[in-house]
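For consistency, the fold was encoded as tokens, as this record shows:
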Amino acid sequence: MSSKEAANMGDISANETDLLGMIKEYLKFEEFEETLHSFEKECKSKGRLLSKPRGNTLKDSKTRVIQKDLLSSFDDGDHRVFFELWTENIPHRVKDTDAEAQGLEFYLYIHFTIYPLRRHPVGHDRAEFEERVSFFRQYLETRGGALSQTTEFLPYYALPFVPNPTVHPSFKELFQDSWMPKLRDKLEQFLSVILKPSNSPRLMTLYKEGGRSTKEATQQLQLQLAESDRRITSYVRKFNKMQADYHNLIGITAELVDSLEATVSGKMISPEYLQNVCVRLFSSQMRQSVMQSTDFTRPGTASSMLRASIAPQRPKDVPMLPSLDYEKLKKDLIEGSERLQSLLLQAMRWRLTRSLPGEQRDTVLQAYISNDLLECYSTKEKTVLHLMRSTNEIVRQYMARLINAFASLAEGRVYLSQIPILLKHLTETLRKEEKESLTRENVLVALQKLSLRRSQQTAMIADDLIGWLVDELQDSDCLSDYNLEYSAALLMNLCLRTKGKRKCAENAKHVLKVLTDLLGHENHEIWPYVNGALYSILCIPSVRQEAREMSVEEILRCYIKEENPNLNRQIEFIIKQLNSEEGPESDDEEEEDDNDEDLMEIDIDKEEVLQPQHRELSGESLLTTEYLGLNLPFLIFHIYFLSYS
């Protein structure tokens, strides 16, 4: 017998001993004394070993450690450690269905959010507090949303938006000396019940857990099966209709060929025949009206009707938004209170994002540009754009959102490109703002859109934005999927330029390491950007040489998988570029500047932190009430009409 076979036999023997021991434990637990006696006697006669009952000593010890660690992290205010342990050790069925557990979890999030304020009411770390507020807000928008209809918890949904909760009357109780010890007692009692080890035998535990997981898996498969059945029915219906239309079309085509052959022999085609063909081509809803209203004896009628049936529908006329007093608006944007500035920035953005694509949105954008809303051509020391440096976070965020909205439209990018100090403001904000702030996110997205223009690419490369992006992407696990995708897309755009490639060549090893690591990221949306950047920089000989020394080809081949043919094809192109002896460094500097696409996303308006107070004007009502301008063409027409009426 080989050593491998002996090892396998040993594993089987150990497993059998353990299983027999569990059976003995179960029989003893259920007090099947006669059966247990017979079982032990037969095992002994057959030479089968029984494992000794393990008891709950190990489980008790582990439970006590977990409980101790949870309470310790509660006392230390370490929210990350606490909720990691909480997620791993508190059963999902308890957290998701038990009202007491849900309430306790809610107050625990509050405890960790206000912990810096309780520890240091004066002079606390503002950045740490804001990070905890962001953590709490994320909870409220996900798991915590279930309690938003409960009166007890409703006031605390305002906590993330209160600058100083310590002085707010709604949160007075949270800062009393007795609040934290009471919460700790509740937590300790809860843990002692939930983490109490079970006395049931191991065989029963295995059966319960296995049965539950099987049941959940079965339910999930049933849901997927129902959804698949629904889709199949829909696809079969569409296929049958398409097949019927195809057969109908083939039949009509054959008849038309016969008719053309007949006309060669001098036979005439009657209007009734044409009518019959057209009716068969039209959809059933149109047939009745076609037969009643169309004169098929008129030449060209049939073909015109057919072309009209597939012509795109003309959009309905949409109303134009009223014009505004932009001078007054810009004055209040610069000199108004921070709340008014935020409300105006929000309203101006909504005009762009909520207007209908096409003529209405184009008119809004042209009005902003012609009235120089961002004061591109102003010589004043302080302009609207300086709101990017406001001390108020909401003002900065809403200014960044408005710039992102401008950058989403081709004409808006042209306008922004004419503002000399814009990129300086944006890159400065990008480096200063916290990693997951909405201000930074909107600035990043705006920069990616602006990088479609060569003049902006050049300025970004000169400002060493490539180095900053590579450092950010090195720590990709700390980035949201949204930020990760836009960072990778921006890096690729900058790497398409010769200057960008040469900038990467200055630190080729670091850049190659980061890019190849990103191919293993779970977010597959970044693959085209990462591959595009890799392919671009490998046209530089020094980068290719560094890649060969780093065995980049072997690393790339590790990512080739059968289920990803698109990725495989891209990787093969990169490897081919890597192994080429000569690579073109020129990137055709005369290439067209922009792709002229509009890129407006709904994410620009997500997570609005500014909500109007009672009877406070906001949005379009604020603009049309306080800043309504004169529509000169309308006034001229009106005066002309009155003078001649």
In short: The two ends are 115 Å apart (CA to CA). The first helix runs from residue 3 to 29. Residues 1-10, 588-592, 631-645 have pLDDT under 50 and may be disordered.
